[in-house]
Task: inverse folding
């Protein structure tokens, strides 16, 4: 059973019943789920969690919906990998990677969508909707297919074919909107008010966002029920970053881990870094920007949770760091080369951020640090494909192979010595 | 008649202009401020607009043409 008790305005603290709503009627502030923590404390223990399924639904007692009717394609409980080779390159002795590429649609969005879809079905919705350029669309389409719900997915009309396929295969209604990014935003804002759909990140947003807490839960459990010293997460809307911290804090408040002293750092692409800019200017006033970066999955120019992310950063003594497109590509390649993980551009942002923070002393060498890799690289191959070594072309004989290999190795040595 | 909720973000050079007053005067739209934060450098205002949707859209286009950024109160809806 769920211990969710109400929705509460994050600004004026007014409470509302658990309904498909997302802004406070009084101040238009965002709503979030609050829980009966006493009930949770009685029902949830380390043992009860460890007996649960090997998916994020092992934390069902900490989520805002009933697990018995979950729309579940096995999101979560992804690997936490000790990244010794990357850590050695960066100068971090205890570095771990939370590899959310291993989700069913290859990104962390499955965590939020499984919760939103479950809650939508509880509310009696028959249609799941979203506006997305990639990961969210894939996940909404897949979860709707699994639950037998209709899916309507809005995409910008200039979206690359490769990204359309990842959603179209699940047979949603795909709507390509003519116009720029702002036009799509505006249209979807109006549609969300007009049609009886579960728009996962609009009227389902309070529930949807709770799915990200499971990243914090899992990391703590996988570390042997302890919080990391330092987390580095990508920031788009800022929600993921905030909820990882909330997840750790909830475990502590339930007595499942010791008090949390985790420093929370966030990374953005320089071409869309409104939260980093506010952090550097020492303000919590996040000025919207027009995104221009290869890290499309992080390209949210007007981040809904930017203000709250800056609050967590301040509270935990964390940092905000940005990465250029070249640094993002280098980050992706470094991660692949050292740990065998092909992450999408958001992973490149995180690794580039780790590198900068470690070099500047923002992460101490002895801090147990967890970096969050939130999506797989096959979705954003175009970002790196022209920067990779082409294959050796050889005739089918050993001499040709050895000559070509020798030339490649010689070129490698010369490059290294240059 | 319909209601529409938006967030307007003003850069420094626009803060002193009575744009919300003019929006209500030039268009048949009722403006109702719910939350705001305005400093010397910049400001944002969350408000509800009431009127015909076509008129609201014309009014918001006019506001955007003045250089004010107009966003849904939810932040960006399009995600990666």
Result:
């Amino acid at each position: 059973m769920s211990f969710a008790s109400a929705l509460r305005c994050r600004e004026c603290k007014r409470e509302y019943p658990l309904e498909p709503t997302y802004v406070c009627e009084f101040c238009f502030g965002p709503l979030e789920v609050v829980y009966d923590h006493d009930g949770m404390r009685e029902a949830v223990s380390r043992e009860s969690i460890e007996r649960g399924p090997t998916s994020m639904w092992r934390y069902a007692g900490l989520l805002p919906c009933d697990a018995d009717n979950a729309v579940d394609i096995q999101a979560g409980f992804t690997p936490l990998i000790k990244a010794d080779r990357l850590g050695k390159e960066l100068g971090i002795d205890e570095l771990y990677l939370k590899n959310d590429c291993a989700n069913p649609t290859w990104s962390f969005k499955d965590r939020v969508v499984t919760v939103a879809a479950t809650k939508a079905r509880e509310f009696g919705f028959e249609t799941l909707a979203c506006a997305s350029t990639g990961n969210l669309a894939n996940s909404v389409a897949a979860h709707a297919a699994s639950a037998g719900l209709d899916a309507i997915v809005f995409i910008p009309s200039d979206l690359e074919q490769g990204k359309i396929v990842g959603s179209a295969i699940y047979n949603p209604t795909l709507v390509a909107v003519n116009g720029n990014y702002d036009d799509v935003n505006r249209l979807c804002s109006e549609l969300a008010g007009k049609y009886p759909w579960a728009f996962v990140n609009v009227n389902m947003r309070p529930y949807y966002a709770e799915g990200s807490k499971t990243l914090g839960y899992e990391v703590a459990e996988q570390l042997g029920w302890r919080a990391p010293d330092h987390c580095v997460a990508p920031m788009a809307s800022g929600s993921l970053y905030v909820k990882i911290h909330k997840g750790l804090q909830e475990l502590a408040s339930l007595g499942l881990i010791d008090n949390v002293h985790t420093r929370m750092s966030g990374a953005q692409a320089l071409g869309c870094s409104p939260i980093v800019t506010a952090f550097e200017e020492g303000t919590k006033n996040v000025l919207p920007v027009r995104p221009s970066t290869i890290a499309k999955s992080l390209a949210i120019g007007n981040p809904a949770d930017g203000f709250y992310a800056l609050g967590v950063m301040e509270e935990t003594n964390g940092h905000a760091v940005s990465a250029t497109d070249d640094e993002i590509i280098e980050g992706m390649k470094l991660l692949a080369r050292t740990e065998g993980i092909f992450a999408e551009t958001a992973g490149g942002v995180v690794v580039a951020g780790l590198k900068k923070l470690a070099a500047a002393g923002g992460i101490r060498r002895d801090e147990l640090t967890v970096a969050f890799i939130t999506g797989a690289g096959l979705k954003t191959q175009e970002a790196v494909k022209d920067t990779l070594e082409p294959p050796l072309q050889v005739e089918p004989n050993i001499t040709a192979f050895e000559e070509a290999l020798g030339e490649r190795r010689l070129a490698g040595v010369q490059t290294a010595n240059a | 008649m319909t209601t529409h909720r938006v967030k307007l973000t003003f850069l420094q050079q626009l803060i002193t202009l009575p744009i919300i007053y003019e929006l209500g005067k030039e268009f048949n739209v009722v403006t109702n401020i719910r939350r705001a934060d305005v400093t010397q450098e910049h400001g944002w205002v969350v408000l509800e607009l009431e009127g015909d949707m076509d008129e609201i859209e014309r009014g918001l286009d006019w506001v955007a043409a003045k250089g004010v950024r107009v966003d849904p109160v939810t932040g960006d809806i399009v995600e990666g």
User: Anything to note?
Assistant: The CA atoms of residues 60 and 70 of chain B lie 7 Å apart. Strands of chain B lie at 2-10, 30-38, 43-51, 69-72.
